[in-house]
Design a protein that fits this description.
heterotrimer; A alpha+beta (498); B alpha/beta (559); C mainly alpha (165); A: 498 residues; alpha+beta; 10-stranded mixed sheet; 3-stranded antiparallel sheet; elongated; C: 165 residues; mainly alpha; two-stranded antiparallel sheet; flat
């Protein structure tokens, strides 16, 4: 009996982002990867008595950057707390974190789900230090401690339980990955442990408003695993409830190999951590001017960029998604826009700007990516620079060459890496757009004796315009701009047949 | 040694005879350096080191009248010979001291001695201050053989000024204790009266200076741990404003109250030490970025502030709490001395102060439990051994428990449990929160008092001393000795103890020093130094020397 | 000015005090509260939390000492705590921040010199937590001793000492 339709899953995420600073959160040891065990330590990292923490300003800034990008409220004072527990890789017997006064509160995380925009609320974002690592030595049957990671700065993001499916949760996690990369505060690499995520999962009958007991899923190593783990957990909880049992509040560890979760320790009561305001770290004021400067320097988030592309430039959802989620493509596109003569940011643009922007998008996604894709090359390798592409678009938008000529020019650009100007000049492709010149050509055509009869026919059959335009076009060897030519020709014909 | 035992009672509190400075060679060349004490069959010559003060020693060394190496050897010999009677040090750093002395001499030879404010001064450092060149144990088994590999800032600054660290002083384990008896390495005795304890927790530092085994020492003061033993040993002991001296390298007891404090015989000596110790340290987030005033110059000044006499406030409740008539006597005489020499005195009511003791112990216990969480035998220190590796998580817990139970002494364990209780079951009454509020009330009370006076004068400890046998091991009784010192700790104010007088309970017992305490507003160390210096100009108590340790054959570590 | 020269005299207790004893209005006695009773179970729970292992005698002594100290703190009941904020820090100055600069320090020798057991460049702890093949109650940072957030040890439990080198 499948009762799953009656239940809806409630999912919230707890994400730890390792911040990409040079030194650790509270001391000057290097915050790096890839060294030998215990290479990147200092006395503070191993908890030598007498050492004292001093907060890393850049780590704070990175957390603020993240919070501002999500629209969080920023705390006025910075305060740290000690979270006590005993474990071999926790050097001081406590972790410095933030409890009552996180740096960022509230805010939202926007992301795409099935091409649509979704938004999940954030509870808080705060700064804390990481612990060391324990490895297992199977030969001697002991554990080995490496403190390289101890003390590196982490941003902890806690979301509201707003997510309603495993896939959505995976997308949300993926969005966080992209966001931290975009903000250049972390490389967001889950396999290497730069991004770690736990999921809190519970279910309730559809239509109810209260939350039920939830389980915490740990040890998830990728967005895909996140989806599988949550699906598995939802299924397990539904089964439990259908059998008449209750879901207990527990922590479960996900095993990717066997695609199952196993119960871990029950989540211990909060008081056992005995959070204590850290007496070594007195509160300090967070300068509003500093916060403002961080906000002003924020790069556009992918979602914001997507909005801008769709609203301001009228790009399709597909194009907007593509160009906003890939940082390199996005940067290329922006440079192309500039080169094509579209102002960088600002008010709602004119029709012309939108036209140009669409052209840029088309040329980039269809032509350039198509060409690169055939050779399996990334955008960074493109022989056509953004400036050149923009220039090409400008020619087309100005009407100096038509689309067909544009493709020809593009092919040359791709092969020879020359600029459009150089190629157009070489090939003499410039379209004639000057109305006077066009008028001259038209008059010449209309003056031909064989055309006389057709002019009479035009009076009753205006569709014959195309015939005259075609003639004039071949007179110019295809160089005339068709629209202009057509307009001029029509005007002249109308005059003649009045 | 040179005074017979049945001297008349009038010898008490009399000026010491003017003894001629020894012109004989300071060290006996027939006794080679490094001779173990057992083989030294007679006390070292001269009976007293031939320096009248730190300034005198520094002048002699910088003028090359004596070399730093000579001075160091002189004190090392004294130390080696006498310290067994006192139990004042846990480690004598002979080679390191001699090497440092060589370096100082070299600098002087080359004329690069501008910074050497304390050139050649032998210093003893409490063993909860990290030193790079020798182990630092905090008198605890859990840190035996621990080598931090770096110098505490306070130690670094002393060394940079040319001071020579000759030993690590004994202390109550982790700074927890008020008797000097909670060291796992033995008790520290008071050189004035060997049957008495030196006090705590910086007992060793105080005893060493009092017995002239060094000229200056560094202690740490959390709830009175510098002032109390300094008072018992007749010294000047200063607790600086919280944050004035860096805590980097201090093995933490209670972070929000720990401070490093110098001890010496003369106020000028302590002032010299402060000049070197104070000042911003970027490695300590609670360090104050303030300009250092001229502490030495403050010692010359009279009891006048802004053309007005210094107003000395006398906390009524504190003085009333003294029941011993001998002590009362000393205090009253001291007060009248100040009054007769330019200061005005007035009585103030400070009823909040008595709650400070409970507040201090609750706050200190919580912070200590947190600070001591890192001692688990995993990364350093003593680790209990397991019969064989195991995969049971319960066993990890057992490893921790055994390491900590075996490594910590009873007082430390007691305080950790108290701290744990306040945090785990704190929701019952939030006593810890209340204690933090009491702390605010006490700070406010001091602030109000300082509107009416410039400096407070009160006893340092409520008793003359306590004998070894009588050392209370019931916590509350022992904690009572801190009743006058915790206030300044809670409020982070500078406090200084000086020798106000001396008493003798019967005509045959040795003299015991009596200390009084001066408390000033934040960053007014110059004021307490000034007032104490005036007292030392008016009296000669501080020139008295303990004699008991010279005669005794007692070995506090032995049978 | 010289010290008193007269021979030591045991001063009588009736000496005139230097201060005036102001008559105090009698304060109403505070409502006596029941003393906080600390139970042996609580002491044991605290010992477990703090990783101490007291003997039964010590538990009893601790229970007594703790009760005494807490009873001592009953004096707080006399005080008025309205509008009294808590003092949580010793310093009046704000915490400074440091720039993101690496300060190289040779701590490895400190680690090595002081560690009870080490192997290659690791510190050794003689307790093992379940590897990837072990299905029961694995450790992922959620050990007997605490909750750690963030699933960090998956890579580790699959990684052995040889790989780490």
């Amino acid at each position: 009996m499948n009762n799953s339709v009656e239940y809806e899953p409630i999912i919230g995420l707890e994400i730890h982002v390792r911040l990409h600073t040079r030194s650790k959160a509270f001391s000057g040891a290097p915050s790096e990867f890839g060294g030998r065990p215990n290479d990147y330590i200092d006395p503070y990292s191993i908890g030598v008595p007498g050492t004292l923490p001093i907060p890393n300003r850049l780590a704070l800034e990175y957390v603020l950057r993240l919070g501002l990008a999500c629209g969080c409220a920023i705390a006025r004072m910075g305060e740290f707390a000690r979270k006590h527990y005993f474990y071999p890789d926790l050097p001081k017997g406590y972790q410095i974190t933030q409890s009552d006064a996180p740096l960022c509160e509230g805010g939202r995380l926007d992301f795409l789900f099935c091409g649509e925009k979704r938004s999940v609320g954030l509870l808080r974002i705060h700064l804390e230090e990481d612990a060391g690592k324990m490895l297992h030595d199977p030969v001697r049957n002991v554990s080995l401690l490496d403190f390289n990671r101890a003390g590196t700065p982490l941003a902890e993001i806690v979301t509201q339980p707003d997510l309603r499916s495993a896939k959505e949760a995976a997308e949300c996690l993926s969005a966080v990955q992209k966001l931290v990369r975009f903000l250049r505060i972390s490389d967001g690499n889950m396999e290497e442990g730069s991004l770690r995520c736990d999921a809190n999962v519970s279910i309730r009958r559809k239509g109810e408003t209260l939350f039920c007991e939830r389980t915490e899923l740990k040890n998830i190593n990728s967005c895909k695993q996140m989806e599988r783990a949550i699906e598995s957990e939802i299924g397990r909880q539904i089964d439990l409830v259908n059998r008449g049992e209750t879901v207990t509040k527990e922590t479960r560890r996900w095993d990717a190999e066997h695609e199952r979760s196993f119960p871990s320790r029950k989540k211990e009561a909060e008081t056992e951590y005995a959070y204590l305001p850290d007496p070594d770290l007195p509160p300090f004021a967070i300068d509003p001017m500093w916060v403002q400067s961080i906000a002003a320097a924020l790069p556009e988030t992918p979602m914001q960029r997507r909005e801008r592309y769709m609203k301001r430039m009228g790009l399709s959802a597909y194009d907007a998604n593509l160009l906003s989620t890939d940082p390199e493509l996005g940067a290329f596109f922006e440079a192309t826009l500039v080169s094509a003569g579209i102002p960088e940011k600002g008010e709602a643009s004119a029709e012309e700007d939108r036209r140009r922007a669409k052209l840029c998008a088309n040329w980039l996604t269809t032509e350039l990516l198509g060409a690169l894709g055939q050779q399996n090359r990334p955008v960074a390798w493109s022989p056509v620079s953004a400036e050149s592409l923009g220039e090409l678009v400008r020619y087309i938008a100005d009407g100096r060459i038509n689309g067909k000529q544009g493709k020809e020019v593009f092919a040359h650009m791709y092969e020879s890496r020359q600029t459009p100007t150089e190629i157009i000049e070489r090939l003499g492709l410039c379209q004639i757009t000057d109305t006077a010149e066009l008028a001259t050509v038209c008059r010449r055509v209309l003056a031909e004796p064989t055309i006389e009869k057709q002019i009479q026919k035009y009076k009753t059959n205006p569709k014959l315009l195309g015939f005259f335009v075609g003639h004039a076009l071949s007179e110019t060897q295809g160089k005339a701009n068709p629209e202009r030519l057509s307009a001029v020709m029509q005007q002249l014909l109308d005059e003649k047949t009045r | 040694m040179d005074e017979p035992e049945n001297e008349p009672a009038s010898e008490l509190a009399s000026e010491p005879e003017d003894e001629p400075i020894d012109t004989e060679p300071l060290t006996d060349p027939s006794v080679p350096y490094g001779t173990p004490p057992e083989q030294l069959n007679r006390p070292p010559e001269p009976a007293r080191p031939p320096f009248s003060s730190v300034a005198d020693l520094v002048a002699k060394v910088r003028s090359r009248e004596m070399s730093a190496v000579e001075v160091t050897n002189l004190y090392l010999t004294r130390l080696q010979y006498y310290e067994v009677r006192l139990g004042a040090v846990v480690r004598i750093t002979r080679e390191q001291a001699l090497a440092a002395a060589e370096a100082v001499d070299e600098k002087i030879r080359q004329g690069a001695d501008e910074e050497l404010f304390l050139a050649g001064v032998p210093v003893v450092v409490k063993d909860n201050l990290c030193t790079a060149d020798c182990p630092t144990t905090a008198a605890s088994k859990i840190l035996e053989h621990f080598e931090p590999g770096y110098d505490a800032t306070a130690v670094e600054r002393l060394r940079r000024a040319g001071a020579i660290v000759i030993a690590k002083a004994s202390l109550d384990e982790f700074g927890m204790g008020s008797s000097g008896g909670f060291s796992t390495l033995g008790s520290c005795r008071n050189p004035w009266r060997l049957s008495d304890m030196a006090g705590g927790s910086s007992g060793g530092s105080a005893a060493a200076v009092a017995a002239s085994l060094c000229m200056l020492s560094l202690g740490t003061d959390t709830g009175g741990s510098v002032r109390q033993p300094a008072s018992f040993c007749g010294l000047v002991g200063l607790r600086p404003t919280y944050g004035l001296v860096s805590r980097f390298g201090v093995i933490a007891h209670a972070c929000s109250m720990d401070q490093v404090g110098p001890m010496g015989r003369y106020v000028e000596d302590v002032a010299r030490a402060m000049q070197v110790l104070g000042g911003y340290d970027p490695r300590d987030p609670t360090s104050l970025a303030v300009e250092q005033p001229d502490y030495l110059a403050a010692c010359e000044k009279p009891l006048v502030l802004d053309d007005k006499p210094v107003r000395i406030g006398l906390p009524k409740e504190a003085h009333e709490a003294i029941s011993d008539p001998l002590l009362r006597d000393v205090f009253e005489t001291a007060i009248s001395r100040f009054a007769d020499n330019g200061a005005t005195t007035q009585w103030l009511s400070m009823p909040m102060a008595k709650h400070g003791l409970a507040a201090y112990h609750l706050i200190a216990a919580v912070e200590a439990a947190s600070n001591l969480a890192r001692y688990d035998g995993v990364r350093y220190g003593r680790r209990a051994s397991l019969a064989e590796p195991t995969s049971d998580e319960e066993v990890l817990s057992a490893l921790y428990k055994r390491s900590r139970q075996e490594g910590f002494g009873p007082e430390v364990r007691r305080r950790i449990i108290l701290g744990a209780y306040l945090r785990r079951f704190g929701h019952k009454e939030d006593l810890f929160g209340r204690a933090c509020q009491v702390r605010t009330l006490i700070a406010r009370e001091f602030a109000q008092a300082f509107e009416q006076c410039d400096v407070l004068l009160l006893p340092t400890v409520p008793i003359i001393g306590f004998a070894v046998e009588d050392t209370p091991n019931v916590p509350l009784e022992l904690y009572q000795t801190d009743v006058f010192t915790v206030g300044a700790s809670l409020a982070g104010l500078p406090a200084l103890t000086f020798m106000a007088g001396a008493v003798r309970t019967t005509t045959t017992t040795p003299t015991s020093p009596v200390g009084m305490q001066l408390i000033a507003p934040r960053l007014q160390e110059t004021l307490v130094l000034r007032v104490a210096a005036v007292y030392q100009r008016l009296t000669t108590f501080h020139k008295l020397e303990p004699k008991d340790y010279l005669d005794s054959e007692e070995d506090p570590f032995g049978v | 000015m010289s010290i008193d020269e007269e021979p030591y005299k045991h001063r009588p207790l009736e000496k005139e005090p230097l201060f005036d004893k102001e008559p105090e209005a009698p304060k109403p006695p505070p409502k006596p509260r029941a003393p906080l009773v600390v139970s042996a179970e609580e002491v044991l729970a605290c010992a477990q939390w703090a990783r101490l292992d007291p003997s039964p005698e010590e538990v009893e002594a601790l229970r007594q000492d703790l009760s005494d100290v807490l009873a001592f703190a009953r004096s707080f009941d006399e005080l008025d705590f309205t509008d009294v904020p808590k003092t949580k820090y010793g310093a009046a100055s704000p915490c400074p921040l440091r720039g993101d600069v690496v300060e190289p320090q040779r701590a490895f020798s400190t680690l090595l010199n002081n560690s009870p057991a080490s192997q290659d460049r690791f510190l050794v702890v003689p307790v093992v937590f379940g590897g990837a093949s072990d299905n029961k109650d694995k450790n992922d940072g959620n050990s007997a001793d605490g909750n750690r957030d963030g699933s960090d040890d998956n890579a580790d439990s699959n990684q052995t000492a040889e790989q780490a080198d």
